[in-house]
Amino acid sequence: MNNIIRNFIGWAGKKMIIAAENNQNLTDKRYLETKIANWILSKERKEQLDGERYYQGNHDILTKERTVLGKDGKLEVIKNLPNNRKVDNQYAKMVDQKKNYLLGQPISFDCEDDTYTHALKKVFNKKFHKTLKDLGEDCLNGGIAWLCPYYDNGELKFKKFPGYEILPFWNDTAHTDLEMAVRLYLEEKPNATSPHDVIQKIEIYTKNGIDYYTFENNRLVPDVKKAHESYLKVDEKAYNWERIPLIAFKYNAKEIPLIKKCKTLQDSINDIISTFKNNMEEDARNTILVLENYDGTDLAEFRKNLAQYGAVKVRSGDGARGDVRTLTVEVNSANYESILKIFKKALIENCKGYDFSELRTGGSPNQMNIKSIYSDIDLDANDMETEFQCALEEVLWFVNKHLNNSESVEEKDVEIIFNRDGVVNETEIMQMLTNAGVKISNRTLLAQVPFIDDIEDELKQVKEEEKEAIDAYGGNLPTNGDMNGGFNNGNEDK
User: Fold this and answer.
1) Is the residue at 391 inside a domain?
2) 170 Cβ contact list (under 8 Å, min separation 6)
3) Shortest CA distance to 272 belongs to which of 327, 345, 344?
4) Among 353, 384, 406, where does a domain finish?
5) Banded model confidence at residue 458, pLDDT cuts 50, 70, 90
6) Which of 117, 150, 342 is nearest to 244 (CA)?
7) Cα–Cα distance, 350 to 262 (Å, whole number)
């Protein structure tokens, strides 16, 4: 037992030494400069930028050139052949599916304290819901995104940063304890004449606040306009949070972006569509021609005349007949359609999305069919929701501090609920609940009606209409069996 304790103390001592060395490294300016320079050109950051680029539709196919084998077997770019660059952005469709499936509806809170719940709803309002959806998009594109709580004129607000802007320094391998973070973003130079005239701005987040630099020639240069800033300021006095106000929202525990699962498939889809369009556009004026007894020697002039006049002059002589023939490849659209279908299905499966095209022609699908369609996206959403739940616990820490200081509202136990936005067969579900003898309140039923925005107002109007009906019938509503609307007004004996 004593040996185990000694080994543990020795291991803990080594961990403390390593942590101390890391802290010293983080205060070493040259060390930070090297880490930032390497991160800017890293493979991980390139994948994050690719995810954002592909979501916006800027795919690799847009820079593709038509090439042929030239001298010495080297590829040469040619300009006189059709070079279509078509983008069928299935990747963006997958991102939107996942984002709206998990985050399409506002989050809700399960808490027994109405005062605390009401205070939370004031902070987690519609503006926060939009920010949360944007975070979902960023973390799908980059594997991770960041939320920063801050104060603006005494109001707690939130701003988001995409993954490719933040270089985190973690205290643990699980990436849960943040020691420091570096933010890199571009700012246009004064009087800039080109989009490339930008300044690399650096913000370093620590528990002591934010330090501001510019990054020039791989060197950190203090920002002359603003060198340091605390996170909070009350009555002109600076304060800092007990934690760094940067919360990581991850797509998955490994922080792997969605684009890494499907980039090659997306590129293949674009390439197939573009190649098919190229083959359809190639005709006798721009494809390979076989000339026999051509009345001329300059092939460039021949191409020009053919394009301009749509005709060519050949000659026959010495027993040889002049002719022009083309070497063409038969374009079979069925082949392209088949392989395109295979790639699209593979992309959906690799991204764990869903495809309703198979059910659109089959009438109204039952609930079991719908569940099978959503099985893959449900599994992926479970992982993403776990990461978001952990991140929102961090957000709640800052919110609770704010509520305690501003409204004197104490922290309570609360469960955050994600309301997934999936398709259901409502008629089948209602019938199933009715058969099971389940009674559902009017409030719950009204919540499912899409054209009702304010449930409380709707219930109030229903009560007012019922009261008006009672007053109109003199206090006695007609029974279901009185189809003529007769009623007992208390004067039957008269």
Assistant:
1) no
2) 176, 177, 178, 179
3) 344
4) 353
5) confident
6) 150
7) 7
